[in-house]
Amino acid sequence: MAAGPEPPEWEPRWRKVLRGKENKGSVEIMRKDLNDARDLHGQAESAAAVWKGHVMDRRKKALTDYKKLRAFFVEEEERFLQEADKEEGSPEDEDADPAERFRSLLQALSELEQRHRNLGLSMLLQ
C-alpha cells in the first residue's frame, strides 16, 4: 500500500521530475529539523544541569548558614541559662519582687532575640 494516492498515468514527465525533487528536499528539511531538535535538546540538558548546580550551591549555602545560626543560638541559650542560674543563686533575688524578676528575664530574652535577628539578617545579606 502506498502512503498517498498513485499519480495518474497521464501525468507529465516534468511533474514526475519535480515530485522526486520535492521528496528529496523535504527529506533534507526533515533531517535538518531533526538535527536542530537534537541540538536544542542538548542545550536544554546542559542548561538544566547548570541550573541544578546553581540550586544545589544555594541549598548548600543556606544549610551552612542555618548550621551557623543554630550553633550561635545554642551558645547564646547556654550563656543566657548560665546567667539566669547565677542570678537565681544570689540571695537578693529571693527578696526581690517576682514581677521585677520576670521583667528582667523578659528584657534579657528580648535582647537575645534582637541579637539573633541581627545575626540572621547579616547572614542573609552576605
Descriptive keywords:
126 residues, mainly alpha, 87% helix, rod-shaped, single chain, 3 helices
Structure in words:
This protein is mostly helical and 126 residues long. The chain has one domain (13-125). 87% of the residues lie in helices and 0% in strands. The chain is rod-shaped, with a radius of gyration of 38 Å. This is Ring finger protein 187.
Helical residue percent band: over 70%
Order of helices and strands: HHH
Radius of gyration, in Å, reads 38 Å
Number of discrete domains: 1
Give the helix/strand layout.
Layout: H1 13-89, H2 91-95, H3 98-125
Protein name: Ring finger protein 187
Quick structural overview:
The chain is an all-alpha fold. The protein has helices spanning 13-89, 91-95, 98-125.
